[in-house]
Design brief:
Blueprint: E1 9-13, H1 20-31, E2 35-37, H2 44-51, H3 58-74, E3 79-82, H4 88-97, E4 102-107, H5 110-119, H6 130-136, E5 147-150, H7 155-166
Parallel strand pairs: 1-3, 1-4, 2-3, 4-5
Helix pairs in contact: 1-7, 3-4
The structure holds adenosine-5'-triphosphate (ATP) and D-gluconic acid.
């Protein structure tokens, strides 16, 4: 019996501050895949809204998700994206671009995530939006076959576990 092919298109998801950018970049490095951070794909209006403490709507998020999906589909040999992808419909939208998309959900105690998010400097996302992030989050269902990782451990160890479980070559 042959082993399953390693995952090549990977979404690292979760609420703001869970460690997507940090762990996603390490995972991409471990798997030798290109990395994209969804923060860089927002149009200026979205960044202005979030900076002002206003949660994004679905309408704000569709073009952003499609820009990310386009990037994934263009990276034919695979790639890692760090994107909150809070709702099931957002993940469906990304899967519309790359059907084999594998999910890594960075999960942990809300207090720990909020503390890390609040301590971070130089980022447009204000701590006041954390309640809306948790309220909007729809954790992946069993059928989405997400790898769920606890973010209490160091970024290096979370990324190493993700790489091992996704089938690094
Ligand atoms: N496992 C970890 N252990 C300790 N600190 C961490 C860990 N993961 C991330 N951090 C720190 O927590 C903060 C938030 O991480 P990061 O910016 O990667 O989150 P994010 O999910 O990409 O957030 P956003 O969606 O708002 O961009 C950063 O200061 C980062 O250095
Ligand atoms: O869907 C959203 O609410 C937003 O995209 C946020 O999650 C940001 O992209 C990011 O995670 C914060 O920096």
């Amino acid at each position: 019996m042959s082993l399953p092919a390693p995952a090549r298109h990977i979404l690292v998801m979760g609420v703001s501050g869970c460690g997507k950018s940090t762990i996603g970049a390490l995972l991409a490095e471990a798997l030798r895949l290109p990395f994209a951070d969804a923060d860089a794909f927002h149009p200026p209006e979205n960044v202005q809204k979030m900076s002002a403490g206003i949660p994004l709507t679905d309408a704000d998020r569709w073009p952003w998700l499609d820009a990310l999906g386009t990037w994934l589909a263009t990276e034919e040999k695979g790639g890692v994206v760090a994107c909150s992808a809070l709702k099931r419909t957002y993940r469906d939208r990304l899967r519309g671009w790359v059907p084999g998309l594998r999910l890594v959900h960075l999960a942990g105690a809300p207090a720990l995530i909020a503390a890390r998010q609040g301590a971070r400097e130089g980022h447009f996302m204000p701590p006041s939006l954390m309640a809306s992030q948790f309220a909007t989050l729809e954790a992946p269902g069993a059928e989405e076959q997400a790898l769920i990782l606890d973010i209490a451990a160091s970024p290096e160890s979370v990324a190493a576990e993700a790489a091992a479980r996704l089938g690094a070559r």
